[in-house]
Amino acid sequence: MLKFVSFAVKFQINVHDLNNEMIAGNVNDIRMIQFLDDKGNLREEPGVSGRMLKHWHYEAMRQLILNGSAKGIGLCDACRVGEPIRPSMLKDGEFYTIKSEEAAVKGCGICDVHGYLIAEKAKGGKGEGEGEEKGTSARRGSRAMFSWLLPVLDVESCWKQVIHNRVSSDPAVMMPFNKSYASGFYGFVSVLDAGRIGLIESKLDSSGAGALIDESERKSRIKVALEAYRYLISGQMGASLSHAIPHIKPLEVLVAYSEEGPLPFPVSPIYQDYLVLTANLMPEHANLLYWGHAENDKAVKKDSIDEIFHEVINKI
Ligand SMILES: [Zn+2]
Questions:
Q1: What is the whole-number distance in angstroms between the Cα of residue 84 and the centre of ligand 1?
Q2: Which of 15, 25, 70, 307 would disulfide-bridge 302, Cβ 3.0–4.6 Å?
Q3: Distances (CA, A) of 110 to 43, 199, 224
Q4: 189 CA distance to ligand 1 centroid (A)?
Q5: How far is the CA of 6 from the centre of ligand 1 (A)?
């Protein structure tokens, strides 16, 4: 049974604003990040944070569960409407956080997979000490983990600011604004700890069994978490999809999966020799599937990205 899956994805993306977290007045600038090339030289280029990748994986799961092929998976009220404070339930028009991990995992397929952190401030007291109610916090570690999306090191990337006009009949709101768009070859790494979906470690018996949900829902949750990666690979991420769908061309997809246990992270595809290095690193129980132009004895070459998804989903 599928325990662990990792992805190393390389694609070309032309004219994207996948990360417009830097907003100042009329300037909607792209997030830049510093990193080193393989000779140790400093580069500062557009990158997309792993928080953003995780968010868009979350969104893809949500859409598949609500509108797609993955019906029948429970969601909390926050995930149902895309409310960021989760897990929550809606009562009389207000969201109340669900504090018990058991209730959250049983009731919500996304909070199960994506984890959460609820930190509540202390209430009631006037300062430290007496009369103060202690702040509570609850957390669940994410079963899906994401790197930043970074430019691959052996090619250049570019970015440019352009001026847009808001289209309106009211001249007062016809204010020009600036926006940056970037292009380049990018890579990211992500892992899905499929074996721990539907589980709470402290509730397991000594044999390691004891999922909180029935096996068929657990499998559906793993499947939808995997299917959501197709949408990331297609560039279905970012806040500007209505007017700036990125021009994406997948270049390479390397998937490692195991039916025995956790795997090390793959070497990042921003490095030219990542396929060889990943194959060198993986333990014997890893199965490597690869779509792209390179050859490697340890990776089974597939004719399409879809074939990779099929094989992995069949192991659930
Ligand atoms: Zn939820």
A1: 9
A2: 307
A3: 36, 13, 10
A4: 24
A5: 23
